[in-house]
Amino acid sequence: MMTCLLRPGMIFAAAAFVCAGLISPAVSAGDWSGRMGTELRLFTAAPLDARQANNALSLSAFAEPEYFARWNNGADSFAFVPFLRWDQSDEKRTHADIRELTWLHASQDWELRAGIRKVFWGVTESQHLVDIVNQTDLVENIDGEEKLGQPMINLALIRDWGTVDLFLLPGFRERTFPGVEGRLRPPLAVDISQTEYASADQERHIDAAVRWDHFIGDWDIGLSHFSGTSREPRLLPSLNASGEPVLIPRYDLIDQTGLDVQLTRGAWLWKLEAIRRVGQGPSYAAATGGFEYTLSGLFNTATDVGLVAEYLYDERGKAGPSPFQNDIMLGLRFALNDVQSTDLLIAAIVDRQSQTSSYSLEANRRLGDNWKLALEARVFAHSGGDALAALRNDDYIQAELSFYY
Amino acid sequence: MRRILLLPLFTLSLLAANLHAETSQEKGLAIATEADRRDAGFEDFTADMTMILRNRQGDESVRVMRARTLEVKNDGDKSLLIFDEPADVKGTAFLSYSHATEADDQWLYLPALKRVKRISSANKSGPFMGSEFAYEDISSQEVAKYTYNYLRDETLDGNECFVVERRPAYELSGYTKQLVWVDKQHYRPMKIEFYDRKDSLLKTLTNKDYQQYLDKYWRAGEMLMVNQQTGKSTTLTWKDYRFRTGLSDRDLDQNTLQRAR
After folding, report:
1. What is the complex's ipTM, to 2 decimals?
2. What is the three-class DSSP state of B43?
3. Annotated domain spans of chain A
4. Chain A residues lying within 8 Å of B137, measured CB to CB
5. Which of A107, A260, A273, A333 can bridge A306 by disulfide, Cβ–Cβ 3.0-4.6 Å?
6. What sign has the CA pseudo-torsion A142, A145, A151, A155?
């Protein structure tokens, strides 16, 4: 596992850290905070592949401490966020990462952020097409919202007409995949020892990105372009050293232009994300669009109910790798607005062609001042067709208890 | 010649306007306008906030925040709230550009996802952080947000007060009206009663420990909001007020929101 921590990008980030230290010897003592917790997963059916762990109950634990310091009247700051996960059943899910190791300097009309960081772009809920800077930490959660730290130099130019973010991204991070014995994986295991790259520089290829975002009245608009190694690999069938069939990740060199727009009017949020990607097979477009409408103070209580509906489109259609080529997502979000900040999100994504569907439930509640209980369940409705069919025996219920400090 | 004749006529009409008895609506508006005038020109302030939420059984829960507010001339203020406690929301930040009658612009920064979300400001009556303060109670108070009606004079804890009824002029308020006790000496809100959509008394806010800053601006050190219908209450304590710290628009923009913590 330690090899992945010693990539060139990490060395670069460590250099940024040292530089930050040299720039200001007067770093005031920082603060440690963070979270740690345990997670219990229950898979309700036997796995499709006999090699996958068949212990219905799987235990896991994680820690994500965070060190933060600021100086120069808040204009400079430093953050270090390592992440560790141990998993009982899948050795590939037992992993470590540096989520952040970053120095930030803010000036009147620019900000420089250097080191390992996480960046999020986008507005929709069902999937995040535009968000491309960070690699997905897929073994953490298949929802794609957990990300690996990305080495970067990011200069933000802050103008009256919006913010322009320039990114230089040295050091590619490979996507994490479950191991042979892991659940929630394709029918064939992914063999990351045979990873292929389109670039001769492989993971040392330096990627670049630029983004403009601005808000005008009710509108929030972002326009972005990324040029470099695709975060999303193609998975090619092959054989491993023992002659067993496996999938090999191949990372293409792509150019992706993205647009994200949100219109906020009254209780309505109208959202659109659209991308065009060139370099990964024939060029294609994909989009997610829809709305979120919030009914507040339902039945004279403090509860808010959000109705979420999104349409997911991918030009490559059913033959393409995305399961969300012509799908509808419907969601209900409950926020109790109570002292424990209880919330619940129920969502369904239904494929309009293959009738494959998946359902999810996420609920959170604070316990006392420092604990939080999170419940999660996913159901993959049985019927062949798209990539989600491979998960049809991987329905699960998960409880996570975290301690925050 | 004619001009000389006109002048006294003009003066007479002004006198007539003064003699015309002030209506209770005009007096109510005049009190709100005077309170607003006395608080104008503060430019900006920062402060630390602690909220203690109590339920009927007396169980307590604590919220710790830092606030930055920038005065905006001829519009609502810009404000940034940074959450420190409870620990699971540490680093979350809330940016609001308030407007007198239009909907406010609001963004929430979620540190776990590094995501800035533009959120709907339509839910004015919802509880803020599970407390007895609604979003509309803590947002910037502009004169144009209400219509006013002066009711009476009353002595409250030894302070001579005007009692003014105000009705929200904006949509989606949780209140039909509020009764505000404004002290005659400094035009500070000493107490506010909030009436729900059925016009029953819902909550009572009592402002205490007023201190004056820059020899002009009065701020309460403690605000106690009691829900008269549920018995729950929230004490909001303000500490370390600093005025004219030199905040600019840049200190209350989306980039700052993401690194405020």
Report:
1. 0.91
2. coil
3. 2-404
4. none
5. A333
6. positive
Q: What is the pLDDT of residues A175-220, one digit of tens each?
A: 999 999 999 998 899 999 999 999 999 999 999 999 999 999 999 9
Nearest CA in chain A to B112: A146
Domain B24-259: top CATH class? mainly beta
Could you give the C-alpha distances from B164 to A135, B8, B136, B140, B234, in angstroms and in order?
58, 37, 18, 19, 24
Which residue of A220, A339, A402 is in closest CB contact with B118? A220
Chain A contacts of B259, Cβ < 8 Å? 77, 104, 106, 111
Q: Does B1 touch chain A (CB under 8 A)?
A: no
Q: What b/e readout covers A223-256, taking b as 16+ CB neighbours within 10 angstroms?
A: bbebbbbbbbbbbeeeebeeeeebbbbbbbbbeb
Whether residue A164 is predicted with pLDDT greater than 60 in this model: the reply is yes
- Which positions ≥6 away from B148 have C-beta within 8 Å? B25, B28, B29, B31, B32, B164, B165, B166
Residue in the structure block whose two tokens are 């989520």: A99
Among candidates B89, B113, B255 on the partner chain, residue whose Cβ is nearest the Cβ of A163:
B255
CATH of region A2-404: 2.40.160.10
Per-domain boundaries in chain B: 24-259
Condensed to tens digits (0 to 9), the pLDDT of residues A121-159 reads: 999 999 999 999 999 999 999 999 999 999 999 999 999
